[in-house]
Specification:
It is elongated, with a radius of gyration of 16 Å. It has about 55 residues and is mainly α. It has a domain at about 10-45. It has two helices and no strands.
């Protein structure tokens, strides 16, 4: 685990916000055909890919 010491609330807010944007929009997900969520959404909207079928 990486720990950070921030100089201000604004600095911490900026770093956390940037990480959340990366994690939720740009990070490659194995469960999304190794695409980022944004890329997967675009490909799905254009019907270039089909979603995985989840069997329960």
């Amino acid at each position: 685990m990486q720990r950070n010491e921030f100089q201000s609330y604004q600095e911490a807010y900026e770093i956390v916000t940037n990480y959340l944007l990366f994690y939720n929009q740009r990070r490659i997900h194995g469960s999304l055909y190794d695409l980022s969520p944004v890329e997967f959404g675009k490909a799905f909207a254009l019907q270039l890919i089909t979603p995985f079928v989840v069997k329960v």
